[in-house]
Amino acid sequence: MLCEEREMAKKEYVPLFETRKVKGRILFRCIAASIFLGICFIIMYRIRYFPVGGKAERWTWIGLFLSELWFSFYWLLTTVCRWNAVIRIPFIHRLSQRFGKELPGIDIFVCTADPLIEPPSLVVNTVLSMMAYDYPPEKLSVYLSDDGGSNLTFYAMLEAANFSKTWLPFCKKFQVESTSPEAYFRTASELVNVQEWLSVKKLYEDMKMRIETTTKLNQIPEYIQKQHKGFREWDFVLSKHDHQTILQILIDGRGTNAADIEGNPLPTLVYLAREKRPQYHHHFKAGSMNALIRVSSKITNAPIILNVDCDMYSNNSKTIKSSLCIFMDEEKGDEIGYVQFPQCFYNLTKNEIYGSSLRVMLQLEVLGFDANGGPSYMGSGCFHRRETLCGKKYEKNYKVDWKKINDKKVNESASFLEETCKVLASCTFEHNTPWGKEMGLKYGTPVEDIVTGMSIQCNGWKSIYLNPERKGFLGVAPITLLQNLVQHKRWVEGVLQLFFSRYCPLLYGHRKIPLKLQLIYSTHHLWAANCLATWYIVVVPCLCLLKGISLFPKISSPWVLPFVYVTFVHRAYSLAEFLWCGGTFRGWCNDQRMWLIKRTTSYLFAFFETILKLLGYSQLNFVVTAKVADEDVSKRYDQELIEFGAASPMFDILATLAMLNLFGSLGAIKKATMDADQDSKVLDQFGLQILLCLVLVTINLPVYQALLFRKDNGKMPTSVMYKSIVFALLACMLAMY
């Protein structure tokens, strides 16, 4: 009888999400196969025509051969990872029909670290956007972790709690999708109800003005402090690095008083500043997240947790339901540990001057992740099962009883919970416990998200990547080149450290996750290692051109064909993918430029700093990227002018490499034009090298403009210009010596 019931259930089963193979995979495989064949011919050429005379010729040839082998190996890894890419399609209408009011509770974690870098007005918009999801408000709880321990942020949260009473019914009434007030009023084009629209906008602008005024003054007026007991906590705060736990339930969603202006219930809203003491390591964002996991387990204890950075607001009111289509699918949902959404940005220029969208990676490459065990945890925009974050291992017979989970309720009062839960966010609570090791986010690395996601997968869980047409979350991309390079340096340095640690995917994931998934992780972990081969390609052919050493086949030789084919087809397919993903031709050119800039600067620094850390010469640190910029910088960003206006060793390197290739190109042109009889011979022998230098010069045109022609504050500093010219000339003279 039981077997018959199971058979009936299988027949009646309708999936809540669908898995589809990515379009164009046959074309991708054919092109990849042809490129692989071309690479084989290039390797044959390097071996067959190895120079026998001249020490310089031999060593430069070996160096270039090793660089080409590295790029070929790296390309092969990325190609294998994309071989079986898939996309996921959730069916939200089926979720509502099947589960109705039995939807689970959702705890949303928002993390902020510094009120100067991450302004309270920005944090408030993120919090309000999370509160306004198209989801039963009584099942929604929003927690803010304030690692800056700032009363300015706390005041902003009080303002958000009050404004939410108007904002949430407004969003529901007019089906607002970008539920961040700032984003909505910035982009809204239709006034569905002019009077109400203007009224809500004025309320928001007044709130924003009050928050920004107090932030600018760095002081909360005394009459405001008397309005809430929470401000008394700051009487005992010594500094942002030395204070007790501050926990305040600003809206208790269980209470009858927690209602909006139309009488509908409001989500729970909680403010937490965990205890910090100078003698205890606070473990940055990982420690903040772990404190939230423990505190929320006593207040609301929702089975699903969403975490977002404070600058990533909700752009799609159906995001929660989309993720639940994955978790609550009766056949495949129980094995899913987390659902990751892409990190997208609202402030990108038309041609993406800094290539910040990572559109090809997020729209195509991560789909290969998904087909082989699931994407990595990206640190923001991710829905987790609470159990997986707490270290639970997947078991084949694991089955979730959503009704039973929904019956769990917390009966203690808000004031009681505020006092009793403080110990969970204390400095000493984690001492001699599995937190940071087997439980919660992992400690000891600046990329705690990658390690945590891989650990969840090693515990037997799978993950899913959802990339809906309307993006789930939108954030703020860096608007200066230096900010961008520093951010990427932190990312690639963190993942390279993992590769050389016990969390290396080839070791840590051995026999726990699929080999393809281990390789995919490795390609990302080895980003920084690309700097060495890139540097060689950028520097050595140019210097050899001045020295008269040929590194490529003659133009008249048939061996030139594989070099031309591999380069042209690879870049042409890259352009086609970029355009297919919604980019522009100029955007692709900017993306290629940033690819080169990052590999020769931020990746280089990340690589050598990782080596120094392995040798014990450097300590772990964490850098928060600024989310605000002055008006002139923003104006140049909108005009798509690259911002160089700060002195940095990265800019010294960038400018020196640009000048080196300029001098090399000019030297080659001079050599080709000085003697008309030798003109054709020079072009035949050094044609590919000259072309490479000219391509690098073209890529660096904005650098030359910033060094020599620009007059605005975004130009290269004069000191950088002088140093780059001197270093480049010195390198050229040494090469010709």
Automatic annotation (TrEMBL):
SUPFAM superfamilies found in the cross-reference section: Nucleotide-diphospho-sugar transferases
Annotated catalytic residues: D147, D449
Residues involved in Mn(2+) binding: K285, D309
Entry-linked InterPro entries: Cellulose_synth (IPR005150), Nucleotide-diphossugar_trans (IPR029044)
Membrane topology: Multi-pass membrane protein
GO MF annotation, one: cellulose synthase (UDP-forming) activity
Keywords from the UniProt entry: Cell wall biogenesis/degradation, Glycosyltransferase, Golgi apparatus, Membrane, Transferase, Transmembrane, Transmembrane helix
Entry binding sites for UDP-alpha-D-glucose: E118, D147
Full protein name: Glycosyltransferase 2-like domain-containing protein
Gene source species: Gossypium tomentosum
